[in-house]
Amino acid sequence: MRLEPIANPSPARRLGLPAAALALTVLMASLLALLAGANPFATLGLIVKGAAGSKYALLETLNRATPLIFTGLAVAVAFRAKLWNIGAEAQLYAGAVVTVLLGTGALPLPSALLIPVIALAAMIAGALVLLGPVLLKTRLGVDEVVTTLLFNFIMLLFVSLLLEGPMKDPMGMGWPKSPALEKAARLPRIVEGLRLHWGFALAILSALAVWVIQTRTTLGYEIRAVGLNAEAARFAGIPVGRVMVKTALLSGGLAALAGFSEVAGLKGNLTLDLSPGFGYTGIIVAMLALLNPLGVVVAAIFVAGVFVGADSMSRAAGVPTYIADILMATALLTMVLALRLTHARIRWR
Amino acid sequence: MEILDILLTASFWAAAVRIASPLIFATLGELICERAGVLNLGIEGIMVIGAFTGWMTVYLGFGLWTGVLVAMLAGMLFGLLHATLTVPFGLSQHVVGLGVTLLATATAAFAYRLSLPEVTSPPKIVPFQPLPVPGLSELPLVGPAFFAQTPLTYLAFALVVVVSVVLYRTPLGLALRAAGENPASVEAQGLSVTAIRMGAVIVGSGLMAIGGAFLTMSAFSSFFFEMVNGRGWICIALVVFGAWRPGKAALGALLFAAFDALQVRLQQTPMGAVVPYQVFLMVPYILSILALVLMSRRAEVPAALMVPFNKGER
C-alpha cells in the first residue's frame, strides 16, 4: 500500500475523519467499561455528568484545565517549530519552585506588584530550564527529545531535595512540603465564592497572546518557517538557531506558568505531587488542538473534563480512573491518523 | 578510599551486571528499530507493559518462561501498533511513540487496578533464581558478576551476540541496515521497506518488553506503577552512546549500570551522610545526558532515521 496526497480534501473528509477518531475513542471507552463489568452507557453518562453535570463539576473541570492550557500552549509553540519539548513537566516545577521562593515573604511588595513579578520570574526559570537542551540541540546536535525527558526526572529529584531540605516547611509535621504562600502572593478568585482563580483568566490571555505572536508577528512567521522546512528557512536568511532559542524561551516560560498558577492559585504550597503529569498531558492537548493556540483552550477543557469525569465516575461505577489516560492516548493516536488520512488516500498496489 | 573498596567487592560487579540486563534487552530492541529507520519512543511504555504482563502471568500461576513469552507478545502487539502508524502511514515518530508510551503505561495501570482492586501492598511472585555456571562462577570478581546470575541475564548477553551476528553477517541484517540508511536501495533489490521496518519495530518492541519483564521477574518480585522510571529514555541515550552498534551499546549499558551500582553504594558511605540522596539518584539521568553530549560530535546516525518511506515517491 502507499499514500497518495490529496490537494484539496472535501469538507466531508475534513470533518468526517476527526469525527471517526472521536467515535473510536468513545468505542474504546465502552469496551473498557464492559471489561470492568460496568454498563458502557452508564459509564459514559457518569463521565459526562462528573465533568459538567453541576456548577461544582464544571468549575472543577475549568480548574483542572488551567495548567493544561499552559502546558498545551508550551507544547504547541515548540512543536510548531519542530522543537520537541517533552520537558514541560520540568519547566512547570521550575515555575512552581520560583513561586514558592519569592512568594513566602522574600519580597515586601503589595499584591498588585508581587504577583506579576513572581509570574515573570517563574517564566524566566522555566525558560532557562529549556534553554540547556535547546542549546545542546542547536550547538551540538544533541536530540532534545531525550534530554528534555531526562530533565523531567532530574527536576523532580531536585524538587524532592528542596522539599526535604532548604524549602521544607518547619511546621509541616515532617511531610515534604513547602511553607504556604503569603496572602499577597495568592491569586484571588475571579468571582468571590466560586472556586475558580485568576490563573484560568491568565491562561486564556496567554492563549490569545500566543495566537497574536503566531499570526501577527515576524517571530511567528519565522517559527512556522523553521518548523515547515529548517533548511529552506536557513536559505531564506532566517537565523534558525536563534528562532529555536526564542521559541524555547516562550515554550519554557508558558509551561512554568502552569506551575505558578497551580501553586499561587490552587494549592498555596508546593508538594511533589503538584503535577500528575500535566507536562505530558499537554502534548495530547496540543495535538488535539492541531497546535492552534485557541484550539488549545478548547482541547484542554475537553481533556480536563475527561479526567475529572473519570475520577468521579470511578468512585461511582468502580471502573479504574486510568480509563481516562487510555482514552486520551487513544484520542491522540486516532486523531493524528485521521489528520493524515484527511490529506492522503490509501492506494493498494 | 571508599570508591576503591567498593570497586573491589564482588557484590558490586554482580549488581552492575544485574542492573545492566534490562537495559541491554531494551537497548538492543531500540537499536533494531533505529537501524531500520524508526525511532521508537514507545520504549518506556512497552517496558511497563512487559513488566506488568510478565509479572501478571506468573502471578496467575503460569511458569516464569511463559511470563517472559507473554511479556514479549504484549510488547510486540504495541510494536505492531507503533509500526502500523509510523511505517505505512508515515505519521510523526515522535508523536506516535509518545502516544504508544502513554497508551501502554495507562493500559498496564488500568489492568492492574482492575485485577487487583483491593490490594494495598503489591503482591509478590517467586522470581527467577540465580543459576551459577559450574566452575566459572568460582572465579574471583568475574565469577559472581557474570556467571552467577539469573537465566534472563545470560539471555541478555547471548542476545548481544545474536543481534550482532544477524545485523552484520546475514542478508536479513544487511537489508535491515539498508532500510535505515538508503531505503530506495532496498526496494531496488525487490524487498519491501515497509515489511522490513515493521518487522524490526515489532521484534525490537518484543525485546523492550522482555527488558521490562526482567524488572518484575528477576530484579524485583512485584509490579509498581513507577518501576520503569525513565529506563526507556536512558536506553535511547545508550543507543546513541553505542553508536548504533550492539556490542558498544551493551558495553555502554554495563558502564552505565556500574555507575548506578556505585551511586547506591556511595549513599551508604560518609559521603552519603553529607550529600542528599537525591543527588545520587540524579546520577543516571545526568550521565545519560553527558553520554549524548560526548557522542554528538561523532554520531553515525542511520541516514534515513525518522524519514518515512512512501513507495514511488522521491
What would your notes on this structure say?
The complex is a heterodimer of chains A (349) and B (314). Chain A has 349 residues and is an all-alpha fold. Chain A has a domain at 66-293. Chain A is built from 13 helices and two strands, in the order βαααααααααααααβ. Chain A has helices at residues 11-35, 40-52, 55-80, 88-103, 111-140, 144-164, 198-216, 218-228, 230-235, 240-267, 278-288, 293-317, 323-342, and strands at 2-5, 344-347. Chain A has a two-stranded antiparallel sheet with strand order 1-2. In chain A, helix 1 runs antiparallel to helix 13 (323-342) and helix 11 packs parallel to helix 13. The longest helix of chain A has 30 residues, at 111-140. Chain A is globular and about 70 Å long. Chain A starts with a strand and ends with a strand. In chain A, 50% of the residues are buried. The model of chain A has no long low-confidence stretch (mean pLDDT 93). With 314 residues, chain B is mainly α. Chain B has one domain: ABC transporter involved in vitamin B12 uptake, BtuC (Orthogonal Bundle), CATH 1.10.3470. In chain B, helix 2 packs across helix 11 (231-241). The longest helix of chain B has 27 residues, at 193-219. Chain B starts with a helix and ends in an 18-residue tail after the last helix. At the A-B interface, helix 6, helix 11 and helix 13 of A face helix 5, helix 11 and helix 14 of B.
